[in-house]
Design a protein that fits this description.
Layout: H1 2-5, H2 8-14, H3 22-36, H4 44-63, H5 69-73, H6 79-87
Amino acid sequence: SMRRKIQQEDLERLFPRGITDTFAIELYDFYNSIINGRKPEVDGMEAYKDMAIPLGFYESAMLNKPIKVKDVEELRVEEYQKEINEKLLLV
């Protein structure tokens, strides 16, 4: 397997404390970035842009037409998101 070929130091960096769940790794990195005063590997803006992709699928399905990811990123399309925003009092 690929993990057997990775040096131990790299293995600990990629899978800290043996954690293999990607969401847990991201949370662990975020925690460590706060404790150690460094920027996390995935910052808020990068995560926001990453989320625009699946949200684009939802927007496209709701509107029954193709949606550009950029339009989701720039909040030009948020029909799907509108109800969520209203319930969270974000609008």
